[in-house]
Amino acid sequence: MRTLLTVVDEGTFDAAAAVLHVTPSAVSQRVKALEQRTGRVLLMRTKPVRPTESGEAVVRFARQLARLERDTRAELGMSGTEEPTRLSIAVNADSLATWFLPALSRVPAELPLCYELRREDQDHTAALLREGLVMAAVTSSPDAVPGCSVRRLGHMRYVPVASPAFAARWFGAGSGTPLREAVADAPVVVFDRRDDLQDAFVRKVVRGRRGASAVRHLVPTSESFGEAVAAGMGWGMVPEVQAAPLLRARRLVTLAPDRRIDVPLYWQQWKLDFPALAAVAEAVMAEAAEALDDGRAG
Amino acid sequence: MRTLLTVVDEGTFDAAAAVLHVTPSAVSQRVKALEQRTGRVLLMRTKPVRPTESGEAVVRFARQLARLERDTRAELGMSGTEEPTRLSIAVNADSLATWFLPALSRVPAELPLCYELRREDQDHTAALLREGLVMAAVTSSPDAVPGCSVRRLGHMRYVPVASPAFAARWFGAGSGTPLREAVADAPVVVFDRRDDLQDAFVRKVVRGRRGASAVRHLVPTSESFGEAVAAGMGWGMVPEVQAAPLLRARRLVTLAPDRRIDVPLYWQQWKLDFPALAAVAEAVMAEAAEALDDGRAG
């Protein structure tokens, strides 16, 4: 089981072998033995390897088992427990760029913790939880992953913005009035292929349009996204908290002060609670209550 | 061939079918037909699908073919050419967070371009080029991908930094003198599991140590990495250009003013040149010459 986890974490049999100080063929034999005992293929032999659906369940089980073992050892005062607790958490890019690190700084410093943050699309963070790669996730999905609990964090508010020069060129002096038609044709910045926010905004303000312009630039980091919009590459939906200082500095103008899109965010985590995870969850809920619109602490 | 590209771009047969307005089984049949004609399996049926090694070669070929076709149509003034040229480029996170967007703003604005930026580990960007997913990449690899040319951009300089409070606690008043032993034991921030920079620094300053402390936090975005270090989660290697303002504001102190790590960066792109790609390459070389240490324009 430990071998399986190591292979999943390291991505290849060779890397896992190096970590475990055994040969790659020993790693392969152990995984095969586990597959024979469970009667299922657990890993797809891709690069990096990926757990199958059955594999995901076993990986989740193995991680929680390792966790329980460690807690019990710690309670019994047994050796080998000095190493800090690893907390793997999947966080969507905009949360990581804004409120999530301040949330972690609320966690009591005396707790011996290591954070393993994974940055993922907010629609994809729940998948990492399902695959057993993380213990908790900030996600847009309210549907609980098996074996996990869900709490609402609040929502992140996105506002439509552009650089003053871009707005003047496409929407007339940045007044935002002749927006309806122009916004569907103006070049747009999107986060990646899966980012639907700009299209959702266009559907909201322009009846009958399926989405924003096909002239779209993909800029897949949270901070660069804002920079690309400020540089005039296109308009885009930027988290209000990130846009605020740029709006004040007149590096951005808003396209429609009364229009925005709210994306609900949830905290999903293993039901198997342990002190470190509980402390982080509490810090996350507390920060979300302050930093997110409509955030609730509990 | 177009079907194959769509499947690779969209990630699943179903999504490709929706884009192409055919049934998923038609998509599957076309891919199978292409596999029979080439006598090779081209796609691994994972989620998302991934090209096999043979598939990568065919994808690269198909993209360059599509490119040639479009250029020829444009030259002949044929219809269907008004849509802007899509330039897919893989960029490492630290470049995207620092000098890469300013480079793009050097590209003449009248060129009808859409950028599809992919953020990847600098050691992994070349793989995206090999897999045919991008046309160009900022990479740490000087080894040309088949069918691609390589030019040196310069190097990105990383400096070891920590928050003043962290430095005072672990290294004594931030003087940096008793660094040697402490740095191998102090908590450290790393970008992800593949980030070797902090370990490389420790190996450089502490003889006989294999790497930095096992107490390591993984913070996988460029900006959050700097924030996590400034928040005192650990020390870390931060690009000098990002560290400079934080050093001036005394939010960071340097651990060893005379020690740094230089990571060479290269521009790899398809040999099949076309005006838009050439214009971007020129802008990238020019910006790198100014923004990167030891950058050369040509």
Automatic annotation (TrEMBL), chains A, B:
Residues 1-52 form the HTH lysR-type domain. Belongs to the LysR transcriptional regulatory family. PROSITE patterns: HTH_LYSR. It comes from Streptomyces aurantiacus. InterPro entries: ArgP, LTTR, LysR_HTH_N, LysR_subst-bd, WH-like_DNA-bd_sf, WH_DNA-bd_sf. It comes from the Bacteria. The keyword Transport does not apply. This is HTH-type transcriptional regulator LysG. Pfam families: HTH_1, LysR_substrate. One of its GO terms (molecular function) is DNA-binding transcription factor activity. Keywords: Activator, DNA-binding, Repressor, Transcription, Transcription regulation. PANTHER family: HTH-TYPE TRANSCRIPTIONAL REGULATOR ARGP, TRANSCRIPTIONAL REGULATOR.
